[in-house]
Fold each of these.
Amino acid sequence: MSSVAEPQTTTRYIDALAQGMRTAMQEDERVVLLGIDVGAGGGIFTVTRGLHEEFGSERVIDTPISEMGYVGAGVGAAMTGLRPIVEIMFMDFVGVCLDPILNQAAKLGYMTAGALQIPIVFRTQTGAGRSAGAQHSQSLEAWFAHVPGLKVVMPATVTDAHDLLVAAVRDPNPVVFIENRRLYGMRGQAGEDPLPLGQARVARSGDEVTVVTWGQSLRECLSAADESSASLEVIDLRSLVPLDMETVIASVRRTGRLLVVHEAVQDFGAGGEIAARVADELFDELRTPVRRIGTPSVPMPFSPELERTLLPGAAAIAAAGEALLAEG
Amino acid sequence: MHAVTSQHEPPPAQLRRNLFASMALIRAFETRVAELYRDGDIPGFVHTSLGQEAVAAGVGLALRDEDYLATTHRGHGHCLAKGVDVDGMMGELFARVTGLCRGTGGSMHIADPSHGVIGANAIVGASLPLAVGAGLSSKLLHQDRVAVAFFGEGAVNQGSFHESVNLAAIWDLPVIFVCENNIYAEFTDSRAMTRVPCVADRAAAYGIEAHTLDGNDADVVYAATAAAAERCRAGEGPILLEAETYRWHGHYEGDAQPYKPDDESLAWRDRDPLTIAEARLVHDDTATAEELAAVRADAGARVDAAVEAARAADVPAHEEAFQHVFSR
Ligand SMILES: Cc1ncc(C[n+]2csc(CCOP(=O)(O)OP(=O)(O)O)c2C)c(N)n1
């Protein structure tokens, strides 16, 4: 029987995340993990499965349903010698624990003139598209990117799930690390080389339209690039803060057209910031106006049919690319 | 099990038959929903309340139609017992236009203000402050309406529990805090997450009255709730009821519950709230076994009809996604 060679290093996004935490915990014993059911239960999505057995209850800590308390405690612990990874089960739940992130972690390094360092990772996940309802579907990365002092990372690939997570833990700053649960089952190359945060990646080369995206939307953009008659260059930002505008600018300088795609609500989203920066720098070189595709400004409905029509999909992205090409 | 501290009169015969009918409806509804979910007919997340029917029925029937109710992700039973329409609920679970929220809410977000139900909620601990607000409205608008907050024992470690109970206490609001203590919060044994496993004990910290009840005995829950509502209407302020019970199914449908000891699950199955009620009704000649079997059959038929109606109903049209973002 002839065997089609499976790349031996293929793994799932969810396992890459666990491996990232394992790597971080092995290389630095100050790294601890806190969250609801992250311990013996292995996590509600099984992301942390096995870590409790491996590192014990002192480093993999089950918390009560007390986000304000344990997220805040994570920040305090980060100021005083630990390097916590704190899990917020769904990104929507930041609603009950925003203060430690917004007013404490983000600011106290600055407000103490650097006397305090706050090396903490707020691990959370988002992902609409499975009828989780309006309180379990929000992509709020722009909120955090808007707060000075927070880094914001969104791994879109299996490799990055590991590598960016390790990099986030090594970083001496508070990092909001946003996974997408629709990617959890995706297979790909296992990562092993943590890279500094803030390096975008050209995920697909093209020369007619630059498509900038991050997180789960990358998959849609890559499918769009396959389908579209326009030649799309797809850039995966990997992190919003730091933001690698150099890679974006270099691409748009060649294509003269920019489309920004994200799952988060379009209005006042991070796409607006990227559009503005490109317009600032390349006003004369743009062949067309910058376009954005995000979710319309409605709380995500439960209905699968409605949800499907609202989320940015490959067909709409491909069409937007073609429309830009037709425009100029 | 904790001592039952209810010293109220048992409810009259017709009421006890009604309590049974309410429980039978919830049992039929949840059983069917679990099957439908397993078969992929219902999208999203579903959390059933099988085994906890007596709490819902006891509380629901002790309230007036105009009394307020705020509940949780595990709220189907509470809504049914409060008189919310079965078709409207099933339509919502199926994400049809006949649903109470026209398919925008789903299982975790059933709401029906026409019966005082200001909503199920997917944020743990959110029901409490909302019920406090409803109690405040009732008091300031001189409405004589009582507000009930349902929550699990997992929610009492949220700050919202502490803040809400204290607010209701200092403002003497007509609020009944009903904790369904089913031991587990997701995969976690809640007794490991507090030094005060008896939720009613916490009431002392806020200076309010509390009772721990046998939550599998609908008569007991009814009597305690009726007395609490009377107190509230007399302006004597809030009260906390802790109903000890057990969820038969997993946290969500599909959870295999490895974290529960088998003997514990079996012991609680033996304390089936419907069987308890049935035995007592038959024993004291309030109903015959045949009559009660007919009640169960009727409940099943009612639910079947609701399923058929939901299947036949339309899914919301695309434009519906954009309605109700703002009130007009
Ligand atoms: C703020 C917040 N944190 C965490 C969750 C995830 N979650 C949903 S239900 C649940 C357990 C709730 O347990 P309990 O309050 O005892 O209610 P039960 O499920 O037993 O009815 C958790 C942790 C959530 N929905 N909201």
Note: Chain B has one domain: 13-313.
Amino acid sequence: MNGVIDLTVFQVALAYVFVLMVLVIMRFLGIKREKELIISSVRMTLQLVLVGYLLVYIFDNPNPFVTVGIIFVMEAFAVHTVFKKYQGKLSRPLKKVIAFSISMGTLSCLVYFLLIVIRISPWYQPQYFIPIAGMFIGNSMTGISLGVKLLLDGMITQRALVEEALILGATPQAATKSIINNTFDAAILPTMYSMVGMGIVFLPGMMTGQILSGTSPTTAIAYQIAIMLGILGAVALTVILMLQLGYRTFFNKDEQLQSF
Amino acid sequence: MFQFIDVQYKDILDVPSLLIEKGKITTLVGTSGSGKTTLLRMLNKMLSPTQGRIMFKAHDLETLNTVTHRRQVTMLSQNPVMFDGSIRDNLNIGLKFHEKNVGSDEMLLSMLERVKLKKALDTSPHVLSGGEKQRLALGRVLLLNSEIVLLDEPSAALDDETEETIIKMVVEYVRIENKTLVMVTHSKTMAEKQSDIIIEISEGRCRSIRGCTK
Ligand SMILES: Nc1ncnc2c1ncn2[C@@H]1O[C@H](COP(=O)(O)OP(=O)(O)O)[C@@H](O)[C@H]1O
Ligand SMILES: [Mg+2]
């Protein structure tokens, strides 16, 4: 690999030609989205520039408290996003289950991945910890969001079946088993499909980034494989925790379905 | 068997005292919306009283394990729901919920005969008529061999004849097997003919019409 081409500010500015192009097309077609387009482009630029400087600082001054603090903020942001994304009311106990599942699911996979698979040292090395945590947490967030929606849809549309099962002497767990299994399947399916298409349909963003910044493709691929497996584990664990703890929140202590 | 002590359920039901006896057939009658289903659902703990206590064999129902209790007190609901799969699956699912072994085809077929449903075990329940579904659901309940059977009147607009057939089947079964039955029907003649005790519920209050000790 030859040296990496460093992009100058001027070169990046040249990429804004794409925004101009879209603006012209919008003007031409009379689509009134110019303001949003400009705001989102500028926002993206500013956010990334800020994060870039922040990361430079953090990578140059590794500190366990800072790493842990950032992970905490990421987890909180993910939990908040899942709550906001669900269109409807989530019960308090279910919210607690979601928060617990995202944190436990991603943290346990993260610890295993960083300390036993990659073996970073010191353990809080931000250069590895932060981007990998971002990928685990981001994907788990998407998976659990889908899981929560499907679980609630299932409980609402199949309420009569669950009720009938209870009448026939089923435990709440047995009564909700098919809803839970279907939800789990559907929630991890996107992650599995993305593994199938990998390398053929698209090169994953992380790998592209690594290759562009000079890492040999074989190293990039090794990382990508390990990370995909880690993501699969984190998503699956997060969703399964949410389902196994979450179904209980639909029942009261007398094993009766609550209104939700 | 069951004893109600100052039981209330929201403002729907108010039962200061009621006794349901072991080995008897007790029938609840009353106009639609008077609270019959509500009372029945309290017996298998699908609902819990908002006030007062229900005793079951001298234990407060509230202190008993709910799932264990529901396995002793099985209810044929007003709108029995069919599960996915075949008639065989629908008969077996109750046994599975009770964590018992599934029935042999021979056993299941003899149950179908008992509830007068002449269908192959592999048939999908979704092709059955309302009355046939009701009888399949009855077979599912009888297979569980519970000590107490609760029978709600079918809410689907089934003809009186179908309802009478079902009541007769259940009554015959509980008499032979020496079980306790609590049922709901709007048919006064069925109530008179088939039951030991008749309780009328009107606007959430119980009144004994025949043979009740309280
Ligand atoms: N889930 C419920 N929530 C609130 N009210 C209910 C509910 N189910 C039934 N009711 C009300 O309780 C009363 C008694 O209902 P129910 O026990 O089904 O009567 P019945 O079986 O005698 O026709 C009715 O006024 C009904 O509208
Ligand atoms: Mg009713």
Note: The CA atoms of residues 71 and 98 of chain B lie 7 Å apart.
